[in-house]
Amino acid sequence: MFNLLGVKPDELIAQAQGAVKALDERLACVEDRLAAIQRTLEYEYGRPRRDVAGHDPARLPLIAQIPAGDTPHRLELVGLLGKPATRGHLVNIGDSKARIWFTLGSSRVGPYVLLPAAALDLSFIVDGVEIADAGEGPTTLQVLFQ
After folding, report:
1. Does the N-terminal or the C-terminal CB of the chain have fewer CB atoms within 10 Å?
2. CB 95 within 8 A of CB 116
3. Structural Rg of the chain based on CA atoms
4. Are 91 and 54 in contact (CB under 8 A)?
5. 62-145 architecture in CATH?
């Protein structure tokens, strides 16, 4: 039947194979672009973890002002938020330096010294925060965790 129309089946198969090969090459380029975008987003925001619940905008954040004195005040974020904090910030609204320790499981990092009128944005997972003064006198920190 194709011979009656002047079309050879071998030519149709060759054209279809060429079109499939061109589409496969374009798909490979799109996959490379998506992989590059994913790497860029991972560098900027980190890799998502399956075992940590992400931020839910329907839940209210933890907002508090915490006095920092000689003895460290500890915030158990898992108990307060129901999950580890994945975003937030701390602002020193007092007149003295503050020391801050961050915990996740058994690991503890710090002290981080937060200067007066300075802010620290979180870009990591935290399940506990300890806040104390840096020896210059009591101060107050404002925290927001989600």
Report:
1. N
2. yes
3. 28
4. no
5. Sandwich (2.60)
